[in-house]
Design brief:
Blueprint (H helix, E strand, L loop, with lengths): L42 H10 L1 H11 L4 H16 L29 H15 L3 H5 L4 H6 L2 H15 L2 E12 L2 E10 L3 E8 L5 E8 L17 E8 L6 E8 L5 E7 L16 H10 L4 E5 L2 H4 L1 H6 L6 H17 L4 E11 L1 H4 L1 H7 L5 E5 L6 H14 L6 H18 L3 H4 L5 E2 L2 E2 H8 L3 H4 L7 E6 L7 H11 L5 E6 L26 H13 L1
Parallel strand pairs: 7-8, 7-9, 9-10, 10-13, 13-14
Antiparallel strand pairs: 1-2, 2-3, 3-4, 5-6, 6-8, 11-12
Helix pairs in contact: 2-3, 8-20, 14-15
């Protein structure tokens, strides 16, 4: 839980091993305007972005809680080393780290691009047989400069050295990202399985390349409470301006007008499934509720889908641009959709999305009710500090590096809380990696005050094992909603921030283990919606 994370991109770190990161060179470019050519990020520009956002990188990984602090630092150091070595960073502005699926997605419309599929398969074959000259000939001009024949040869040799000899291609799939086609060629090596992601531009030239490990033992599993034949999925666009984002509408089959729910993400550049490691809580919720007759709309977060625009515009953003505006647009999309009961449209917010529920409700009067899942009720900077202290305390030892990090965070929090921040801030100033404008926008927002003014049903859900949004936040919601007959609170003793079951103290590494949103949570949400 935290504020929006702006990552300009460079390296995917899969698992904990820094050694593996050596081959995960992401070729990342910023896209000035949708539909125009990519422009290459100059090294000096990229280094400036990194310098300005060092704390932001650390903050992002702390908040996502997928890696230990030492590993975060190692990853960042490796990134800087690669830049210092003069490696050009090019490629696709939209990064999808979608793990390989263990089962077909029910009712999912697949992109049919047989020509592109064949090209992706052939390109990987060229690499596997060592025909680098022909492979490079498939690149666009930017890729040819960044990855000439000798460099692509080195990358492939590093793959072989790390994962063993290439054995075979096992499957292939294609996804559409705006005007780009992304071909995922799953390949078996002697010691691992990789997804080789080949990105094609509109001219069918290779404009991006990734190597991503596929964890066959710890991948997303469709939960047992899903009835796969009970719903279908449609691809939609939320909004109709330059900030529109793609989404998925999951609709029960065989019914009449269905109640519907919009899912609003937590902090960071989230995808529509709110993917964290092998876990996809929003997919669990969407498929779980649709298995119970309720339609669900989930969508890509703007800070992920339009990341390159924020890079080129210096991250000029407030909470409205990050979260609230698109949530309201999603509600309006459902209100005008066939098969949806417009009198029974709800909004479910998780983490930061839960915190924004009162603001979303104040913007759209036709929302029937709200579900707050692990929504913070305290200032974001206070929640962040609490999280850092918790993570540092897990091993019972406070290192000198952890103390310096904590001192830096506390000093910047004092600046955030300074009543003269607006007048004292310098142009382009960032605190905790976030523009001052963002903090000023959040300063006067108190969700527990605003929610009292929204006279509509509210369901608050909280896991006791959640250390990102704690029981202190729940107590504030409880006080704010006291006396409101149409509001309800449920607490789950063994669930964490993702509402996945576990035992003992919740730790960051817990998010790297595959799990699903608990069935009792899905049942409770569905039952509550049907009672409204």
């Amino acid at each position: 839980m935290g504020v929006s994370h702006k990552i300009t991109g460079a390296i995917i770190i899969k698992k904990d091993t820094v050694a593996r990161a050596k081959i995960f060179i992401i070729f990342c470019q910023a896209q000035r305007h949708r539909g125009t050519k990519f422009w290459k990020i100059r090294r000096s520009y990229f280094e400036e972005i990194i310098k300005k956002n060092l704390l932001w990188f650390l903050y992002f990984y702390i908040l996502k809680n997928c890696f230990q602090v030492f590993q975060k630092l190692c990853a960042f150091v490796l990134l800087c080393l690669l830049i210092a070595m003069g490696i050009s960073l090019t490629g696709c502005s939209k990064k999808s780290e979608e793990p390989r699926q263990g089962a077909a997605q029910p009712g999912k419309k697949q992109v049919k691009q047989e020509g592109i599929t064949d090209q992706g398969v052939k390109f990987v074959h060229l690499l596997s047989v060592g025909d680098y000259k022909t492979a490079v000939a498939k690149f666009d001009e930017t890729m040819k400069q960044a990855m000439p024949e000798d460099k692509i040869r080195q990358v492939w040799k590093t793959v072989i050295a790390t994962y063993g000899p290439f054995k075979k291609q096992t499957e292939v799939r294609v996804e559409k990202l705006q005007e780009y086609d992304v071909v995922f060629v799953t390949c078996e090596f002697e010691r691992s399985v990789l997804d080789i992601k080949v990105v094609y531009n509109g001219r069918k030239e290779v404009s991006g390349l990734w190597f991503v490990t596929v964890d066959m033992s710890n991948k997303y599993q469709v939960p047992s409470y899903i009835r796969e034949n009970s719903f279908r999925e449609e691809e939609v666009m939320v909004g109709n301006d330059e900030w529109s984002v793609p989404g998925t509408l999951t609709i029960p089959v065989g019914g009449n007008q269905a109640s519907a729910v919009v899912l609003v993400h937590g902090s960071g550049p989230q995808d529509r499934d709110e993917t964290i490691g092998p876990n996809k809580p929003f997919r669990d919720i969407a498929w779980g509720l649709s298995s119970r007759g309720i339609a669900v709309l989930r969508y890509e977060k703007r800070t992920r889908y339009h990341l390159s625009k924020y890079v080129t515009r210096n991250y000029d953003i407030t909470i409205d641009e990050e979260t609230v505006d698109d949530a309201v647009k999603a509600v309006q999309l459902l209100l005008g959709s066939s098969g949806i009961d417009r009198k029974n449209v709800f909004v479910l917010g998780h983490s930061l999305g839960g915190m924004m529920i009162p603001k979303i409700g104040s913007r759209e009067s036709e929302i029937k009710g709200f579900i707050i899942m692990a929504g913070s009720s305290r200032p974001l900077e206070d929640v962040l500090l609490e999280q850092v202290k918790y993570i540092n305390s897990l091993d019972g030892i406070e290192t000198e590096e952890e103390k310096k990090q904590l001192d830096l965070i506390e000093a910047q929090i004092l600046q955030i809380k300074d009543k003269d921040l607006a007048s004292n801030a310098s142009p382009g100033m960032m605190l905790l990696g976030v523009p001052v404008k963002y903090w000023l926008d959040m300063r006067d927002y108190n969700p527990t005050v605003l929610i009292k003014k929204i006279d509509r049903p509210v369901l608050v859900l909280q896991g006791k094992r959640d250390y990102q949004v704690s029981m202190a936040d729940l107590r504030n919601w409880r006080r704010a909603l006291a006396g409101q007959e149409h509001s309800e609170i449920k607490v789950y003793a063994n669930l964490n921030h993702l509402f996945i079951e576990g035992q003992g103290k919740s730790k960051p590494e817990e998010y790297r283990k595959a799990g699903n949103v608990a069935k009792v949570v899905i049942d409770d949400i569905a039952e509550w919606i049907n009672r409204q």
